[in-house]
Amino acid sequence: MRKTATIRDVAREAGVSVAVVSRVLNDTGPVAAHTRAKVVEVIERLAYRPREAARELQGGGTSTIGLVLADLTNPFFARLADRVVWEARARGVHVILLTTQEDPYLEAASIDTLVGRSVSAVIATPTGGNVDKWKRLTELGVSVVFVDREIDELDGIDVVTIDNRSSSAAATQHLIDLGHERIAFISGPLTTSTGRDRVAAFRDTMAEAGLAVDDELVHAIPFRGDAGSDAVGTLLHLPAPPTGLIIGNTAQVRSALRRLKQSGIDMPGRLSVVAFDDNPWTELVSPPLTVVRQPIDMLALHSVELAVGRAKGHLSEGPRHADVAAEFVRRSSTSAPAPSS
After folding, report:
1. Among the residues of 192-295, which ranges form H helices?
2. Cα torsion for 161, 247, 102, 133, to the nearest 10°?
């Protein structure tokens, strides 16, 4: 059996003192960036696990999990963070929160940071990159749970998400049933599982109804920035603009609606709108928005249960995939299309 690495082994391999390794692990003092990177690399290579963390996991005591979320300026992720922390505290577990700002490079740095802090588990919304780093994290014995998104190449990781395909299909079918044929879809980047699944379900539902999808009506845009406004502007200026619009990019709902308001669009008279969002304001705007309500409380609950259960060895082997049902809520922003002039 391979000997368990010690902090002295890490220090010797990295060519630093034990004190420096301790500062990297506990973030208790300044360490040069290149030195920190070297220490983290050795920790990963030797699969070093501090004794305190090991005792906590084996003894069932308080442990620490990492929470890596894409963008805390997005209300969806802000609320998700709040609920994850609440669920973790209820189980006596501490949370280290990091945000990647949808940047794979920041995500890679976040993973390295969590390796240095020796967390017992990580709940994360992945950007879609850093496959090797996520895989290495699991090889170090850290339980990983992807929430809201997943990475196809990492099929051995637990996933908690809404059923994006059925949610997108329900939104699309709603507009079709109202009589809309020219329907636009604004999604997140197709590098994310949410973007791919929602667009795929939209296209499939349109095809099943015998309706063609004009590629000019499908916009896969970034989560950050003001791309929602730009996408709406492009759609409104088409020779044949859509009569229905699904905003499947939660982070861009406000930007898209602002552009519709500025353009003086009659909603739903000229354009029926469905949004993937469940903020309190969505029923306070005029008209109140028809939405796909995402069950954030359940996403947090299942994510924490999986993360803590895996870390404490309470779950059987094999990945689990929890699809949480979203709720379709019809309000006044959708109606039958206006008769052609």
Report:
1. 193-208, 227-236, 253-262
2. 30
- pLDDT (average), residues 74-79: 91
Write the pLDDT tens digit of every residue in 273-288. 999 987 888 988 999 9
Residue 211 near residue 239, CB atoms below 8 Å: no
Residue with tokens 């044929």: 181
Determine the 3-state secondary structure of 269 from DSSP. Answer: coil
Model pLDDT for residues 219-233, shown as the tens digit of each residue: 999 999 999 999 999
Name the H helices within the chain: 7-14, 18-26, 33-46, 51-59, 75-90, 104-117, 131-139, 164-177, 193-208, 227-236, 253-262, 296-311
Determine contact, residues 331/289, Cβ cutoff 8 Å. Answer: yes
Residue 171 burial by Cβ neighbours in a 10 Å radius (0-12, 13-18, 19+): buried
User: Residue 341: pLDDT band by 50, 70, 90 thresholds?
Assistant: very low
Measured in degrees and rounded to the nearest 5, phi and psi for residue 147 equal: -120, 135
CB atoms within 10 A of CB 50: 18
What are the pLDDT digits (tens) for 183-220? 999 999 999 999 999 999 999 999 999 999 999 999 99
Can you read off the two tokens belonging to residue 114? Answer: 């969590």
Calculate helix-pair angle for 104-117, 18-26, nearest 10 degrees. Answer: 120
Closest CA to 299 of 143, 89, 77, 120: 77
Residues above pLDDT 90, as percent of the chain: 67
Q: What are phi and psi of 292, to 5 degrees?
A: -100, 110
CA separation for the pair 73, 70 (Å, rounded) = 9
Q: What is the pLDDT of the chain when averaged over all its residues? A: 90
Helices 104-117 and 33-46: crossing angle in degrees, nearest 10, is 70
Contacts of 335 (CB under 8 A, 6+ apart): 178, 268, 269, 272
Rg for the chain, CA atoms, rounded: 23
